[in-house]
Design brief:
heterodimer; A: mainly alpha; MetI-like fold; two-stranded antiparallel ribbon; 13 helices; 4 strands; B: mainly alpha; 15 helices; about 0% strand; globular
Chain lengths: ~300, ~280
């Protein structure tokens, strides 16, 4: 077939470069990165005229044994889970409630509400981190001023005392994720057929009952999607913690991905890769558990 | 539009109040950011009171200082770096993703299924694992500390290719067949038929790509060493954690400078923006 043959050539012309990029910068590094977790290496040239060969050294499971003893990994694991469990369901649920409200026919000012709610989603995390640090500033912060207005004059030091920084990082994550979830929910709500509501109305179902028994089950695939992708993103959190703790995390605030970064910067590429593999494994496990918990309900 | 039953007027008012209260929570930190950016260090540094919420006189000099006039931050140069990276990445990445998406949607070629499966796989692979060798490869290629490191790895993305394939898949085959019989080249078909029909999706992807590139933090942190090559987010992060740490007004001016382009873009192209986010749901 002449056309098919011509297709073949020009199709490869279109696909070759993008595939090369994906191969060189993602696929190959993933395979090498997984393997690297079994080696000790600090990067650099594999061979130099002066120094000769400088190959990664095979250490077997040593990096993974080290994971078990590293208290920063233990704390990072706990903090990462606190962050995910604290932020993902809350942002999804709040976004659902807000989406239903904003989407209602009688809601006034849909565009302005959506614009405001969506704003944190598009803004750089660096800006968000600093703005919140400033809002939560001990002496001159807006938040403490608000508290003093309602008579609370001796608040904790939000960004340096115990677990408070982690609590605030989690709250800020909810704050910035709501808009994203909201927009997706509003798209999903368009797919709920009007006739179902009408039928329920005739049967005497009130608005609250309609939301609980119709809307919530109908957008369930979106809820599952948001919970799963939210958990995947949350397990990989880095920027927000890095910025909000002023690049000086403690055991109270460290998360797994910060440990990957720290080890990478120290030149322990093998150990960094091992932590990365741990995050990957946890991500797969959490996703599998969620898929199992929501089995048969992901698609309609 | 849904035909949810109308609740009582009281409930309606309460719902409005709650939604706008949350919406206000989204805006207040940004308003505070702008207000602080216009205050003197002294004004900003003392505990707020009702009378000091607004700056006494707008200190535009904070923006001059942040931009580089006073030599305190010199964001102007980093603005340029970020703009070049984001614009070049967006133009080239959208073109490559769209062409690849067209091939996967409308053409037949050897290895198509395997290549598409690999493309999808890249969306699920963890950055924590692959960034190390992505960095090592960049350093071997001489990309580290060069603009290439910030652009080349992003010239294709699994999500971009997938999204373009979905969007171009909606182009009617009849149109393409007719064009093929008329002897149109594959690129001609992409350009004259697929591109105009898929244009809304293409703009959405462009905005999304621009946003990700402009806001990108982790990867530039890894591959940029020298101060000359820093992008705006890196420079703002540095500004706030170095010696001028206490100068919150300048930091907030810098944060405002960082945020403004996307907010403007958002207001200009809100529909495309919202569609850009809504389409991430397509990954499902």
């Amino acid at each position: 077939m002449a056309t098919a043959e011509r297709d073949n050539k020009s199709a490869w012309g279109f696909v070759a470069f993008p595939m090369a990029v994906l191969f060189v910068f993602i696929l190959l590094p993933t395979v090498l990165g997984l393997a690297l977790s079994l080696f000790q290496w600090s990067g650099g040239a594999l061979w130099t005229p002066e120094g000769g060969w400088a190959l990664p050294r095979w250490v077997g499971l040593t990096n993974f044994e080290r994971l078990l003893e590293d208290e920063r990994i233990g704390h990072g694991l706990v903090n990462t889970f606190v962050f995910v469990i604290g932020s993902v369901p809350a942002s999804v649920l709040l976004a659902f409630v807000l989406a239903v409200a904003v989407n209602a026919e009688w809601f006034r000012g849909r565009t302005i509400a959506r614009t405001l709610l969506f704003m944190p989603t598009i803004v750089s995390i660096v800006a968000i981190g600093f703005v919140w640090r400033w809002v939560l500033n001990d002496g001159a912060g807006l938040f403490n001023w608000g508290l003093s207005l309602v008579g609370i004059d001796d608040p904790p030091r939000w960004l340096s005392e115990g677990y408070w920084p982690l609590v605030w990082i989690t709250i800020v994550q909810v704050w910035r994720q709501i808009g994203f979830c909201l927009v997706l929910y509003m798209a999903a709500l368009q797919g709920v057929p009007t006739s179902v509501y009408e039928a329920a109305s005739i049967d005497g179902a009130g608005p609250w009952r309609q939301v609980r028994s119709i809307t919530w089950p109908m957008v369930r695939p979106m809820t599952v999607f948001l919970l799963v992708t939210g958990a995947i993103g949350g397990l990989q959190v880095f920027d927000l913690v890095f910025i909000m703790t002023g690049q000086s995390e403690t055991l109270y605030t460290t998360v797994l991905n910060l440990q990957v970064y720290d080890q990478f910067v120290l030149g322990s590429y093998g150990y960094a890769a091992a932590i990365g593999v741990l995050i990957f494994a946890i991500t797969i496990a959490v996703t599998a558990i969620q898929m199992w918990a929501f089995r048969g309900e992901g698609r309609r | 539009m849904s035909a949810l039953r109308r609740p009582h007027a009281g409930v309606q008012i309460a719902v409005h109040a709650v939604v706008y209260a949350v919406a206000l929570t989204m805006a207040v930190p940004f308003v505070w950011m702008v207000l602080t950016s216009l205050k003197t260090d002294l004004e900003a540094g003392s505990a707020p009171t009702w009378s000091t919420l607004l700056p006494e006189a707008a200190q535009w000099s904070n923006y001059v200082a942040a931009w580089g006039g006073g030599g305190r931050a010199n964001l102007g140069r980093f603005y340029w770096n970020s703009t070049v990276v984001a614009v070049v990445t967006t133009l080239l990445a959208v073109a490559h993703n769209a062409l690849a998406g067209f091939a996967f949607a409308k053409m037949r070629f050897a290895g198509k299924r395997v290549m598409f499966a690999l493309t999808l796989a890249t969306m699920m692979l963890p950055m924590q694992v692959f960034f190390i060798f992505a960095y090592v490869l960049c350093s071997w290629l001489g990309y580290v500390d060069n603009v290439q490191a910030l652009v080349v790895p992003f010239l294709a993305s699994g999500f971009g290719v997938f999204y373009m394939r979905q969007a171009i898949g909606a182009v009617p085959d009849d149109l393409l067949d007719a064009a093929r019989i008329d002897g149109m080249t594959s690129f001609g078909m992409f350009w004259a038929i697929a591109r105009p029909i898929a244009w809304p999706a293409i703009t959405a992807l462009a905005i999304f790509t621009f946003m990700n590139s402009w806001n990108s933090f982790f990867w530039p942190l890894i591959v940029v060493d020298s101060i000359d090559q820093k992008t705006l987010p890196l420079a703002v992060a540095d500004l706030a954690s170095n010696a001028y740490y206490s100068a919150w007004p300048v930091t907030m001016a810098a944060a405002t400078i960082l945020v403004v382009p996307l907010i403007l873009l958002f207001f200009i192209a809100q529909r495309a923006f919202v569609r850009g986010v809504a389409m991430t749901g397509l990954k499902e």
